[in-house]
Design the sequence.
């Protein structure tokens, strides 16, 4: 089998994201802050749509899952019990000449890759950001910015169980910020120091864990395909015994073919009873579950599908990026799935003539009640189509002079360039059908094919 290859050039993608307002370096006017990024007007919509699609799939459409939003700052004992204070670290060697630090497990020789200087023996460097709670900055007031959202769900297990009366198997889902003082950074938004996770902790009866682990592997893989990511660009990779995290019995990564090669998009772990046992021991509270069938108290096992919002955003952008020729002109386009496209529809009056503006604005006002809609009347219609293609807008609605007479407008499809003409009164319903995936050439009453692709 030939290995799939990424066809996207990371530099081109970074440039598009910067130019069109998806992603900016953090604090750019001060020279940026390493591995921190700001999401501009289109980036924030893209991330919001990804999070919404995840929430819809794992919470809204299921009756065995509930949501949670735990605080970022947690009791410091949480991180003792979880093993993060002790073990969430990378081995680092420092150059004795330039004082740059390197992850020793990623070094190829025994000299500094930058200046060739001698390196110190590796020392463990904890990846958690420390800060202080309250006015006194001493050891007793140290707290950490959470490096994962997961712990919030373990420590709230009992609260959720008691307030929702859920029975096993059930899960808790959470989306939120996580912070890691990563040593190796780079590859754009792939590895950041501040990022968002979308995590599920799925509690099952011991003995049922293998079955649920396999279920979630398939479910999560299919979710990425539902976002429009090509199957050939996704694969599962099993962790070897040596690389398994201290809490995991079994773990697979869903890898994506990023421009720099195959890399982790999501991790799915069977955490066994590690977390509930640890927190029960450390807090002195019993975190178990009364099984009505066997009349026994048990400690549930946990299956954890843990995804990153930024890595998903990068994967969908890489998969969507394309260059082709439309109407004899080169164009850059993002084939974003309509569910995650930042702007769903653009309303474009054919010209800036005053006579067209009122009707075009009327259509725009109507559509924006329902979707993120943009209005653009500057420059030629061809240029405006290109601008929308480049940000992945699936549909453009053109209002022309005939529209004033026949009360119809043209819908143009980004990918196929096909166009149909539909009555304004059925525009919303038609767009909804198209956004839901119906073929563009399925016409509403009174509609007609305007231009084939
Ligand atoms: N609770 C388990 C956990 O946090 P992880 O493999 O360390 O597992 C899960 O992280 C996911 O979070 C990763 O698959 C990735 O999508 C995302 N992630 C982790 N570190 C990241 C970073 N520094 N920047 C961006 N995303 C990151």
Sequence:
């Amino acid at each position: 089998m030939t290995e799939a290859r990424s066809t996207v050039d990371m530099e081109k993608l970074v440039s598009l994201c910067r130019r069109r307002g998806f992603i900016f370096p953090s604090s750019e006017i001060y020279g940026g802050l390493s591995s921190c990024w700001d999401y501009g007007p289109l980036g924030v919509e893209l991330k919001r749509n990804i999070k919404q699609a995840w929430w819809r799939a794992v919470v809204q459409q299921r009756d065995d899952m509930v949501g949670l939003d735990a605080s970022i700052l947690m009791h410091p004992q949480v991180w003792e019990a979880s093993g993060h204070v002790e073990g969430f670290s990378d081995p680092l060697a420092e150059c004795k000449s330039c004082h740059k630090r390197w992850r020793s497990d990623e070094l190829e020789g025994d000299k500094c890759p930058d200046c060739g200087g001698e390196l110190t023996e590796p020392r463990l460097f904890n990846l958690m950001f420390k800060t202080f709670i309250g006015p006194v900055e001493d050891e007793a007031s140290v707290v950490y910015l959470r490096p994962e959202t997961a712990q919030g769900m373990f420590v709230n297990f009992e609260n959720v169980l008691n307030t929702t009366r859920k029975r096993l198997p059930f899960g808790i889902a959470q989306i939120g910020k996580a912070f890691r003082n990563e040593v190796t950074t780079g590859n754009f938004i792939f590895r950041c120091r501040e990022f968002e996770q979308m995590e599920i902790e799925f509690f099952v009866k011991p003995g049922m864990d293998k079955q649920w682990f396999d279920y979630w592997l398939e479910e999560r893989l299919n979710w990425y395909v539902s976002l429009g990511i090509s199957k050939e660009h996704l694969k599962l990779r099993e962790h070897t015994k040596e690389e398994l995290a201290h809490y995991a019995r079994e773990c697979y990564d869903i890898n994506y073919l990023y421009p720099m090669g195959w890399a982790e998009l999501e991790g799915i772990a069977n955490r066994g009873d590690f977390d509930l046992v640890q927190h029960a021991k450390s807090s002195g509270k019993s975190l178990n579950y009364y099984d009505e069938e066997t009349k026994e108290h048990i400690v549930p096992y946990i299956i954890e599908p843990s995804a990153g919002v930024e890595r998903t955003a990068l994967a969908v952008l890489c998969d969507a990026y394309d260059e082709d020729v439309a109407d004899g002109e080169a164009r850059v386009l993002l084939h974003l799935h309509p569910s995650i496209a930042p702007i769903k529809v653009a309303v474009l009056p054919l010209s800036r003539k005053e006579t067209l503006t009122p009707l075009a604005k009327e259509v725009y006002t109507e559509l924006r009640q329902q979707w993120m809609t943009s209005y653009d009347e500057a420059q030629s219609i061809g240029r405006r189509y290109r601008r929308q293609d480049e940000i992945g807008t699936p549909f453009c609605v053109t209002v022309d002079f005939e529209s004033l007479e026949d009360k119809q407008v043209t819908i143009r499809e980004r990918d196929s360039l096909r166009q149909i003409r539909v009555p304004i009164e059925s525009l919303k319903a038609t767009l909804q059908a198209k956004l839901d995936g119906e073929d563009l050439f399925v016409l509403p009453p009174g509609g007609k094919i305007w231009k084939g692709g």
Observations:
- The two ends are 34 Å apart (CA to CA).
- The pocket of glycyl-adenosine-5'-phosphate is lined by residues 148, 150, 180, 182, 191-192, 195, 197, 199, 264-267, 304, 306-308, 310-311 (CB under 6 Å).
